[in-house]
């Protein structure tokens, strides 16, 4: 026989899943105490890791990548990238958003376009690394208890 604790601290007999109350008058509890007295160890509670937990950790990490920017600014990223690609392809292309941003930063629109594309590439690489780590974790059987540790998400 072996035993483990559940998340509420109840004693579970692993062989048949019986829940054993900590009652001195309970025969199964007496057998459990004898088992412990013989030097056996009760398995601690281990939370079952789910794919939802791993996806939530991935989402948390993805949110951190964009966290230096407001939601409103992030909503303009697609337009910024579209305009930046147009400017790189044709310096005279219409780019109303980038033109205003470049003027505010006192840089040429072409420089702003290059900066936007470099940041978009960096964001895509960082997001890709998180998604790749998430896929790797989700493919494991069993799902690892240390799924939230940085070593699972950061490539060296």
Report on the architecture of this protein:
By secondary structure, the chain is mainly α. It has two domains: 3-37, no CATH class; 51-153, no CATH class. The chain has helices at residues 27-37, 51-66, 71-74, 77-89, 96-105, 109-138, 150-153, and strands at 3-5, 11-13, 19-20. The protein has a three-stranded antiparallel beta sheet with strand order 1-2-3. A hairpin with a 5-residue loop joins strand 1 (3-5) and strand 2. The longest helix has 30 residues, at 109-138. The protein is rod-shaped and about 85 Å long. 12% of the residues are buried. The model has no long low-confidence stretch (mean pLDDT 93).
Q: Domain count, please report it.
A: 2
Query: How many β-strand runs?
Result: 3
The spatial strand order of the largest sheet comes to 1-2-3
Shape: rod-shaped
How is the secondary structure organized here?
Elements: E1 3-5, E2 11-13, E3 19-20, H1 27-37, H2 51-66, H3 71-74, H4 77-89, H5 96-105, H6 109-138, H7 150-153
Antiparallel strand pairs: 1-2, 2-3
Helix pairs in contact: 2-6, 4-6, 5-6
């Amino acid at each position: 026989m072996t035993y483990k604790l559940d998340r509420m601290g109840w004693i579970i007999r692993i062989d048949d899943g019986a829940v054993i109350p900590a009652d001195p008058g309970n025969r199964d509890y007496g057998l459990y105490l004898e088992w412990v007295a013989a030097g056996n160890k009760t398995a601690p509670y281990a939370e079952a890791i789910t794919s939802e937990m791993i996806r939530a950790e991935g989402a948390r990490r993805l949110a951190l990548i964009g966290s230096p920017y407001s939601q409103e600014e992030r909503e303009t990223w697609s337009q910024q990238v579209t305009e930046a690609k147009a400017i790189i392809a044709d310096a005279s292309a219409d780019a109303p958003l980038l033109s205003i941003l470049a003027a505010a930063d006192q840089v040429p629109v072409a420089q702003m376009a290059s900066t936007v594309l470099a940041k978009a590439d960096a964001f895509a690489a960082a997001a890709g690394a998180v998604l790749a780590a998430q896929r790797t974790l989700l493919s494991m059987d069993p799902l690892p208890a240390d799924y939230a540790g940085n070593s699972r998400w950061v490539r060296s």
